[in-house]
Amino acid sequence: MLCQIYTSAEEEESMENRTTGLIGLYITGAVTMMLGLLGAYGAYREHKVSLIVFLVCMIIGALVMIRGGIPTAITRPQIEGMLEQKFREFLPLNSASFQVKNMADTLQTKLHCCGLFSYTDWNGDIPASCLCSMEEEEEGYECKRISYNYLMQAMNIYSKPCFPILIHYVLLFADVMLGVFFTLAALAVLGMILSSIMIHQLRHPNRAPLILGIHTIFTPGPPKYEELHNPPPPY
């Protein structure tokens, strides 16, 4: 969302960034599918080379996911403070640069909000992107009526500021990325364990695997003490 907002001023650049992101997703999905097929082939055919390549890829993948997940987990609690400090540097919005005004207009249009932290960020010079129509108010968007100049003229604007809405989506994205990183890391570790077991079994094909069945586990052993039955003496 942040990338889309910052690049929305130039549609061509925005489309180029989206295309690059889609290509990255396609490449990631294709590589993941190929690794899965490689592991499945090695397990089904008991092909040692395929399993070794799969094991190496799982080790690299686990390290990459952990390398990406740990910094994200450390940075996540600091995101809100960092963004708030950055956005407060843009105030007041009415005297900000063209790029900042364009970003604020895009935020207000897409998120149905007014101002970064309050409508007073505009110092009375409220743009049209803050205006809330009667139709939008009937649809459920929260609006309020304010006086915006010395003549006490009133206008209907969105009542919510943009920053709390934006930070909600940013933190949600960070949580999703954390889940993706650590889930893929856990799957990579599981793949490492299973492929290591299969490679070990292929290296020692004559060693019978230890299999404990239910009958073996729950069969009672002989009692510690047995009663001796002596035959009666002859008369």
UniProtKB/TrEMBL annotation:
Where is this gene product found? Membrane
InterPro entries (UniProt xref): Tetraspanin/Peripherin, Tetraspanin_animals, Tetraspanin_EC2_sf
Q: Name one Pfam family in it.
A: Tetraspanin
The chain's coiled-coil residues are none
Q: Is DNA-binding tagged as a keyword?
A: no
Q: What is stated as this protein's family in its record?
A: Belongs to the tetraspanin (TM4SF) family.
Q: What is this protein called?
A: Tetraspanin
What organism is listed for this UniProt entry? Fundulus heteroclitus (Killifish)
